[in-house]
Amino acid sequence: MVNSTLSTLSYFILEAYMIVGSLKYLYFMITAMLFFVIMFANTSLIVIICMNRSLHEPMYIFLCSLFVNELYGSTGLFPFLLIQILSDIHTVPASFCYLQIFCFYTYANVEFCNLAVMSYDRYLAICYPLQYNTRMTFNKVFILIILVWLYSFIKFLITLSLNIRLPLCGNIINSLYCHNYLIVKLACSDTKVNNIYGLFATVVSILVPLLPILFSYMKILKICFSGSRQTRQKAVSTCTPHLVSLINFSFGCFFEIVQTRFNKDSIPKIVRIILSLYFSVLQPLLNPIMYGMQMSKIRNTCKNLYCISV
């Protein structure tokens, strides 16, 4: 009877928020400004890529998918953060918590898979430049993008359907936002099936994108060492933003996994908050700025648009 009552919890309490008094208005303004910059930068690049025929190439279409994912992930987090910063009672409805978990985890999976597809695209462009247009057709580009999003959504729907039925013995989550594993830890019943599938899903989420990334960059490095100086310059100019994005996202995922899986009581609370936001804030902020500055076609298109507007 107790388990039946507890399994129908209507809300969760987020315990990681600090009492900051009137400083909450300053934090609200900073968070709102970050959200605006992320939305503006990603939306602007999506519009630029869609509106300019010179950017209708596979690499830029994959970038467009990446920027759409940044908007998707940021929309699932920032409005929620803004409400919680101004609130004195940090509660969240259970249904919204599960929705945020779905948004958060599918965002991460789409991001990693999209970066994997982009690495394969760079491999074809650098290693097979004469055959690139026949190997990476527009139909293949759109099929890959659809597969990335469908795979990520279906895979996590199974995880969420297993977890959402668990009877819970508590409703306190030690985080700034909802986490799948932290809710599973509140379960009263046996979570062996959830843990086994969760481990399987984690391994698949890492290996499926990692294998094409490693394969692609091994081939690219081989071509760079044996190819001409022009080939090396092309590889550096097109792969540098991708590698920076991939490394940054990997570090963010690592921090997030360590925070949720291990005891972090010895770490100062402010450090835990910064590490929690690193994963979800820096990536959508870094990608549009970095790709906009590093990719010459996007940079030149932005300059031309600016000159026309002036």
TrEMBL record:
A Pfam cross-reference name: 7tm_4
Topology class, membrane: Multi-pass membrane protein
Entry GO CC: plasma membrane
Limits of the G-protein coupled receptors family 1 profile domain: 41-291
Presence of the UniProt keyword Cytoplasm in the record: no
Molecular function terms, GO-annotated: G protein-coupled receptor activity; odorant binding; olfactory receptor activity
Compartmental location: Cell membrane
Transmembrane segments: 25-48, 60-86, 98-120, 141-158, 196-218, 239-258, 270-290
Keyword list, A-Z: Cell membrane, Disulfide bond, G-protein coupled receptor, Glycoprotein, Membrane, Olfaction, Receptor, Sensory transduction, Transducer, Transmembrane, Transmembrane helix
Gene3D superfamilies: Rhodopsin 7-helix transmembrane proteins
Superkingdom of the organism of origin: Eukaryota
The keyword GTP-binding is assigned to this record: no
Similarity remark: Belongs to the G-protein coupled receptor 1 family.
Protein name: Olfactory receptor
Taxonomic source organism: Dicentrarchus labrax (European seabass)
